[in-house]
User: Fold these one by one.
Assistant:
Number 1:
Amino acid sequence: MTTKFKELINVFDQYEKSVDEKTKEYLSGFRSIDRAPQNLPLMEDVISQYDRGEIPDGGTIICSARVGDLWSDPTYNRILELRYGNQKKHIENRGGYSNDAADILSAYLRPILKSVLTKGNNRASMRGACGRDRNSRVTVALKLHPKNISYAEMIRIESLDHNTDCNYRTNQSGDDKFKSAYYANEEWAVNLFKYLKPFSIGIAGTLADAKFVCPSHSYLSTSIRLAGKEYTTKYLTAFTEWDCANEVQGNATVAGSLFLKTFHKYIDDVDKKNDIDSFSLMMKWFFTEYGPAYQILDPDARNLQQSDIVQGNGVYKGNEPAVARFVFLYNDFCRIKKLKIKGTQKTAIPFEGSESTAWNAFLSDSNPLMKPALGGLATTKFF
């Protein structure tokens, strides 16, 4: 196999080159928030000793390195694809650079006397950003290449170390990430916990005696962002009030909340004409009453499940199909219960005529490849 090797890139110089001046000036106001490990050898001294043959190659030395002395190899590493926006968020969330959180970076000292990171591009970049100082230091486990190593073998060894870190470690699950963020008092996790607590919805065991659980909590943040807190709250209120399921599925929550936001004008009209909370009663009907009510006619009749609403979500990630299924559910509920709707409309949420503006807007905003299917999904029983 022929490999095309690439030139090394200095981590601090790449940060300076890639980030806009306003952001660099802003982040320069942050500093290290805790004390770095003390009494470590300086990396520049280790390099000098290695060069003079005073320390054997092939070993590893924990040392204190200037970020300006750290390099990255784009042959196998992602130095050209670092997410500087995420770095900014991490610095803001911590209030600066945390040596404790960063732990020890990993690098290899090449015979050309350059230290090449295999783990820690982002951490080194963040340390340099805080104070905007290429002389700021991070703790590095510096592995010493044999001086007679071939270039190809050097790349193979470094790539193996990098690949092991990327592909052969057990990443945290969503629950693990939430739990650690919550107990670390990170704002986003604490705020989501507080928002869900009145519904008795817990994540990763953080709410004692929670009645409901939500394993896909990132979808709840997405729901609030896309549909707004008002409609997400309305959906969760109905879902939990009628014990629709023990597990709150995030993608169904997003779809239900978007449905409420998109078609609220028609839902409000039905509520006023019938003096009810029609969406809440629809949830109760389909999730808890439908199966028993129809089993006399159909022994296989069952209640609605969240998975019915979001079926196909593994293939197409957009929310439009699930929102269209909510349209079917709502119109069918209004038909079954003979609720009063606007006199000129055939369905509570109309698809044609002067009153169909919300449906038309929904179609207009949908993925063009999905549009032809949405009308059928909104008018066809699916469970």
Note: The mean pLDDT is 92.
Number 2:
Amino acid sequence: MKFNDKTFLKEKNKILMFYPYISSKSVKNVGKTIKSRWIGQGPKVELLEKKFSNKFLNNKYALATGSGTDALHLSYILSKIKKNDEVIVPIFTCTATNIPLLYIGAKIVFADIDPNSMNICTKSVEKLITKKTKAVVCVHYGGLPCDMSELTRISKKHNLILIEDVAQAIGAKYKNKNVGTFGNFSTFSFQAIKHITTGDGGLLTVKNKNDYIKAKRIRWFGIDRDKKYKGTWSNDIFEIGYKYQMTDISATLGLDSLSEINDIIRYRRKLYFRYLQNFSKNSKIKVIDDFNNNKFHAAWLITIAIENKDYLQKKLNSKNIEANQVHFRNDKYTIFKKFAKNKKFRNMDYLEDRYLVLPLHHKLKISDIDYICNIINKNT
């Protein structure tokens, strides 16, 4: 597959951090969907669920949603997390991981990050478990898998629900097994700049049929759509539901990206390893990667840690190269501060002002990576 078409690369001569992947087939195929009867939730959504599950989930139950946040909220409901239940989460993640826990009234318990991967620190997790702990949520930061052996062991030992947030790591593997297949529940994001985009969207995977049936129901107001389509409204609404479904227009975009996902990941990894090659002799740059042979990196982000982060960021920006921090530690947001009062997070404290995310997407060329790295190496 050929990337780097003429439509890119520089917006006003700027090298961008992100660029949405839209298949060349999508303009035609979305047009077909628009002209069909189904533009809301319909057969394209079901087809995306089936094909995604076949590709990444060993045919487990999959449910497409309007966003990754929707999928996370559904996973917390299915986990039977209640008000004041404790849920251990990473201090460093997109707020979408943790905001749905506030809907429920759960007590968020922040765990520190691993300094090499910026994923949740398993030692921190185990120290935080109490009698009130209900679940552990792990986020595969930037496409790099968490330590799923340890997280699985800890969860089983303490009888906890394990939820994987795979928003950034479609296609990543741990010990040759796809991430998203370890947890009791797993969620994915198809937001605009993810490996696969549906404009905005997400997906929930569950392991048993009863959870799947319930998730389908609460995804759409608490109504059993299967009974509705059979021409009867005799089915009662006996629990609160939401409007969390995906549309067929969105699913069409997703299906086209899914059909090309191997090439997308392969090319992103090629760029990622070019960064590593360029930084290999610069001792002042630490690439956020634990370089574990058991992990297959899906290369959504390339993150470095460096002492002169602010200076370097300004230097790159002055050369029209975007570089920034993608997520921020959640305890700094007002809505989360009460959950981290008087607590220290040694690794997060250290990396907070040192980490920087560099451009990585399918529109970049190897020469662009070399250009970026040359500037960084000269200024460190």
Note: DSSP finds 13 helices and 13 strands in the chain.
Number 3:
Amino acid sequence: MKPNDRFSFLKNNRVSQDTSSLVQCYLPIIGQEALSLYLYTITFWDGGQKEHLFSHILNHLNFGMPTLLQSFKVLSAFDLLTLYQKENVYELQLHSPLSSQEFLSHSVYSRLLEKKIGDTAVSAMKQAPSEGEALSVSLSQVFPTLTEEVTPSESKSKLKNDFDLEHFQRLMARDGLRFEDEQADVLELFAIADEKKWTWFETYQLAKATAVAPVISVKRMREKIAQKLVSSDFSPKEMAIIREAKSKTPRDFLQVLKQERKGYITQSERELLHQIESLGLLDEVINIVLLLTFNKIDSSNINEKYAMKVANDYAYHKIRTAEEAVLRIRERQQKGQEDQKSKTSSTKTNVPKWSQPDYKNRTSAQELEEMERRTQELLAKLDNGGA
């Protein structure tokens, strides 16, 4: 899109000019620029009678081109307009904004608004339910000649960008799951579903699989989505470790390790697992952390400080699979071997040779005389005050 490109409005596409919900609900989220652009379009709508230049919008709103492009993106994302392109010619289709109550009942939009103006302000805007009984009348009572075929199949249409939070939370209740931060988590869940083009149920399946105890972990969901296939020449032993790491939960994996050493999982070890899970590491990676930690000690109790050190290292390096964790162990072992070789080969130090335990005095008589002479000269200087 360029300033001199042309656009026209879609015919027979007039929308309501009631701006109350735009100011109350949309403005805090979409911002002044996007709102100004929307108001411009509904004000200058001409039913597609002629073509316009985008430069007219830039001049009228005092926008730069990047601001105009971003504002179009925002309005499109909130389903306030649709922009169609055919070569260098564009067509604008306008959409009416949701009413304030429709907006507030939208599971995603309402939480975006809460982030901007606060829960209390949003609650104050919601319509209070009536305590009386609704005296509803069906359409067929008023128009008896209506057939069943034309009766609306749904009393409530699904809103664009809405996340079916009601069904999602029903499954959460069934499986004993809860949000850590409902407002932030719902927005992140919607973002995941939108990016992956998933249904709410597909999103829930991943949320359940990556939950930490009873808590939904959007961080671990993101890690699972970011997993990539890793191929390497793993040894049979490494392949066996990878298979085991992928087949068990960290608690089951730790229980097996403890039983091999005649031990039981302690309360502090349970808390350690929760801390590692909170870093966002996935189960298969945590199991490698546990195995590596146990291999470092000859005890039935886990070295918690070392385990957290490894876990933080894996989180920092974005280790997302058991394969990547095994390769990380390889990398550290190779580096350790190289460092050891470097230390062994470089024997030059500032420590005198005579202080070494295997030192043998091979100084000649001539060298002894020279050392004695220098010693006497140094003593003489000290006696003279260093002169």
Note: The longest strand covers residues 81-86.
